[in-house]
Specification:
The protein has helices spanning 2-16, 26-43, 50-69, 84-92, 98-101, 125-142, 148-166. By secondary structure, the protein is mainly α. The radius of gyration is 25 Å and the shape is elongated.
Length: 174
């Protein structure tokens, strides 16, 4: 009974996958097939059982995972999560966004090691010092292409300390 219900749906899905054949590489074909599976699952949401829809989405996930792992050959056009540097540029217009923010007035990259506020005046003093220290580390690492991981980590810590100093909520990490 269940197979009779799924057979017409499978025929619709296979005809919908016909444009996938025009893709160039096997990885592109697999990504196109995964996209089409998701589209078909969404279009037939009302007629599919929850299990059948979940299975279609799981298969699409598996296809995309296989492409990312390189199982279907190299593919350079994978959608990727933006880097923290790209997020900061989009959000603030610059990487070092704490100085224009004004939360750490008086601190600069040149004096963060020696400048101090009285804790009674500014309870964010340690966050400001930490933020500028991490940004200075980022600048040192950014000069060396081999230290890209250290630069990314320093930028992450800079953003976290700067957010605490500015009183902003923590950034979600995925």
């Amino acid at each position: 009974m269940r197979l009779r219900f799924l057979a017409p749906l499978l025929a619709v899905a296979l005809t919908a996958l016909a444009p996938v054949a025009s893709a160039q590489t096997q990885a592109e074909r697999m990504l196109a097939a995964a996209k089409q599976l998701r589209t078909t699952a969404e279009q037939h949401k009302a007629t599919l059982t929850p299990d059948a829809r979940a299975e279609m989405l799981r298969q699409a996930d598996e296809m995309e995972k296989g492409v990312r792992s390189g199982a279907y050959g190299a593919y350079d056009n994978l959608p990727r999560e933006p880097t923290l540097a790209e997020k900061l540029m989009a959000e603030h217009g610059q990487l070092e966004w704490l100085t224009p923010n004004g939360a750490c007035a008086g601190y600069t990259l040149e004096n963060y090691g020696t400048f101090r506020f009285s804790p009674q005046i500014n309870d964010r003093d340690s966050h400001c010092r930490n933020a500028y220290g991490h940004y200075a580390s980022y600048l040192r690492y950014a000069k060396d292409p081999a230290a890209a991981e250290g630069a990314a980590q320093s930028l992450f810590y800079y953003d976290a300390a700067a957010r605490r100093a500015a009183g902003l909520p923590r950034r979600e990490v995925r």
